[in-house]
Amino acid sequence: MTMKVAFVGLGIMGEAMAKNVVKKGYSLSVYNRSGEKAKRLEEKGAAVAGTPKDAAKAADVVILMLTGPEAVGEVLEGPEGLSEGLEPGKTLINMSTVPPSYAKALSKRLEPLGVAVIDAPVSGSRKPAEEGTLVILAGGPEDKVKEMEPLLLTMGKKIIYCGQAGQGASMKMATNLLLGIMAAGLCEAVNLGQKCGLSTSTMLETMLSGPMGCALFEFKKPMLISGAYSAQFPLKHMEKDLKFIIQTADEAGAAVPGGHTAFQLYRQALGHGLADMDFAAVKKVFEMMSDPFPLV
Amino acid sequence: MTMKVAFVGLGIMGEAMAKNVVKKGYSLSVYNRSGEKAKRLEEKGAAVAGTPKDAAKAADVVILMLTGPEAVGEVLEGPEGLSEGLEPGKTLINMSTVPPSYAKALSKRLEPLGVAVIDAPVSGSRKPAEEGTLVILAGGPEDKVKEMEPLLLTMGKKIIYCGQAGQGASMKMATNLLLGIMAAGLCEAVNLGQKCGLSTSTMLETMLSGPMGCALFEFKKPMLISGAYSAQFPLKHMEKDLKFIIQTADEAGAAVPGGHTAFQLYRQALGHGLADMDFAAVKKVFEMMSDPFPLV
Amino acid sequence: MTMKVAFVGLGIMGEAMAKNVVKKGYSLSVYNRSGEKAKRLEEKGAAVAGTPKDAAKAADVVILMLTGPEAVGEVLEGPEGLSEGLEPGKTLINMSTVPPSYAKALSKRLEPLGVAVIDAPVSGSRKPAEEGTLVILAGGPEDKVKEMEPLLLTMGKKIIYCGQAGQGASMKMATNLLLGIMAAGLCEAVNLGQKCGLSTSTMLETMLSGPMGCALFEFKKPMLISGAYSAQFPLKHMEKDLKFIIQTADEAGAAVPGGHTAFQLYRQALGHGLADMDFAAVKKVFEMMSDPFPLV
Amino acid sequence: MTMKVAFVGLGIMGEAMAKNVVKKGYSLSVYNRSGEKAKRLEEKGAAVAGTPKDAAKAADVVILMLTGPEAVGEVLEGPEGLSEGLEPGKTLINMSTVPPSYAKALSKRLEPLGVAVIDAPVSGSRKPAEEGTLVILAGGPEDKVKEMEPLLLTMGKKIIYCGQAGQGASMKMATNLLLGIMAAGLCEAVNLGQKCGLSTSTMLETMLSGPMGCALFEFKKPMLISGAYSAQFPLKHMEKDLKFIIQTADEAGAAVPGGHTAFQLYRQALGHGLADMDFAAVKKVFEMMSDPFPLV
Asked: Are the beta carbons of A243 and D250 separated by less than 8 Å?
């Protein structure tokens, strides 16, 4: 535990994850663009770095939890960026969601400098982040991932080793494709039933008690019954993920017709101002696309 | 249990269901177009009727489990059809999957003749049919459904009352829409991951251990790993159901973009000769639509 | 010209077509469900039949121009229907748009009775119908189609012989699929340009002056510029045609992804109350699906 | 004509366009990654520059005709790149197809250096490029576009001024969206008709003689009849353009369902090895997605 860790990116997810790292006794310094969140970590015992470079200088391992490739690029290569502080022998763990091609390029960029790179996006949203029960999808050198296990297990309950650099990101793409399709599918099915005059709660009871019953649908059930979608996983992130997924599918040569259909629905939701609601708010798009009055 | 029951339609599902009815002690007569299957029921203690009309004549309650509206129409209105034997006071329980508009029309056709009509399609495939653990989605007069509960519970473990005539069918449409989308979504996600170079079993482990984990995906897991799709629920039935779903959505004024996407995939599977495989064989369509060689 | 003709169905298209038949000197009797329109034909010199049966009795050739298969079925088989008056040696020309399978079934139904059946749907809308410049897509026995040419040429400028029974309908499906896709495509492209800040008229000038320039887009240009969509070809008919096209594609084993996409757009337009506008009003659906405020 | 011009990018289009510039008497220097093509221009009277920087140094106006944003970025910012030779007062005309956001960024990047930037993608493929009859879609400062008219008219027959920086690119996106949808739509319609048993040439005659008849379909007619798709406009370029279109639609907040459908078809074509055929070869994808044997 003499390992010194830096954590960059203190959004909803990042803040919760960083708290778990410090809580388990790691020496932690944090960096965030807006200082306020860093202060909250300081209260928990973390040091606050003034720049990404300083954060990297002071640490053996740097963890990133940012909104996407642009943010990662900026923090890495911008003025006073991480790259200036990442010396040989250090490790970068990128937990931000990025396309596999970006994850691979990141690894290619830093490995010649003697920096080990792990891509380790997470499955799970706010609550498991707070409880330290995320599932972590790791790609990169297997021995390095093993070495980082104790650190990663402060944030997650399970680490799934997916393969070499970029494969953690690939796994995230595959699982979030399914996630986006399933949530939109649930909303589409419930909307169809509603237009047919069925009771929403009877429908959800039926769906949950059969072979399709799963925790995801349990989470969304009260949202669909109440029509209130306070964000567990903000819709704008699902929209962004599906964009990465379509790009990844294009690069990998895989057909993703369900992904294209889902992307268009979530994208339309953005246009209707639902960006910060839970991604199950895509239900409202089905309502808007359907007849004002059922025909039956 | 002095109630006399007739069962028409002894396909994979019907035969298993009829066996459970007779096993629980009901007086049963059966009718099937091809006689062989009727003989197997005869051995279990059922009487064999020569025509649908005769079956209806001899019974208080007639159960239908046929392939769709055309088959129901033929059995009902064809020569020596049910309608000639359905006298006032009798009950018709249609467990075949039909569009809600057809279920409603059936009720409208027979109620003036004093025949009570229940639509009661089932959720579940071969195995729960054999074990008598189907979920039955019932529409029609609530008291009549209550009255039929003991009979229905010989075939299923649970009866969900969905509302008036046609609402059982509506519930079936909503749940099978989700089913069709989820299975295709799983195949699409797994195919994407495979093209990215991920291990199929690691992927399924990841998906099953998270919030999307469900019995449906457990059933499909060995199929996706082995590439062998022996039918639990034949693909051609899912394709037909999605056709009914698109029709129902059109009539109800509901948008079903995921349904259209899924229908096209299962329909394409038919054209490639996968009709009698399990509906998870739609995976092969994703393979055919993807690049022969991964680009990464 | 001693041939006696009956015309059944005096909608926007039918009335205009029947007028051309009588104007060219044919002895004509007409039937329409609502009598008023028949009266307008009477003023032009046509006799008015009280029932479809009477219309058929009095004629050598019966022309149908109805809204679809249901209407054709009712006029044919309903009480006092055509089938009671169609004696051997007579000819039925169905110019209504129906799926090819229906056109074939119609032929199979009547040919054993000695009635020749031609399916002859038209390409073109109100204006060419009035001017007698429709393009007629004919299927059925080739010699019979030849024999009917003079009669058909009172309504159209060109007859395209497409093959045996049902092939006229097949041609209509193929051409209207393209029509539905092109009109929706034009609206989608113009909407994209508008969201990017381009001038609508500059866009249409560009599109019309290049290889995509065609009469269809010329017709729609003033609609897209003004935003007023008075019906040349009502949107509800395009929606219905695309439903037939999806059914036909299913029966023929053809993939129609563009057809599914277009159907959903026109269907959504119906739900928003655009049924009786021109089918180019599908533009409004693109507007509703797009962001309220352009992001650029 | 004392204006000195540099032309960078001598692909199929660029070579033909550069030849027209030199033929009309402009003093031209050219640069191309592979030297061979530059030699062919040298024979026509052009000077050959060793680097993009040298090309820019020697010229008043630099024209780019490259494969996309990556190529433009490399030529501009790479070692010995254009940016090192583009002095104040010079003009850059980018005729490569790029997304509007890229065109705008290019303008923002260079205008502070005193370089005027025009985006001027073209409508038309190999033949009009050779004949100097392209349609040029120009965005940028209106007076600068006017000033460049004589130069642009050596390559095109018509210049359409679309608005400020990026609007030429926007117009290209809108028109190519329509182009991609129309060509795929034609293939889909013809494939449907073929599966129904119609004659391909009768179908094309029907489509071309009606309101949808256009030069585009005339060009594709012999391809669809022969099944041989030698490239006028290579399929891989259409696939790339649709990718830009989807990105542009996302940025502009416009729904492009037809674009998503079309993209998937052309992308699937790439996977089947059709990249270098004409984009009408997407027809083969419809064939592969359809039943091996027609059902009718």
From this structure: yes
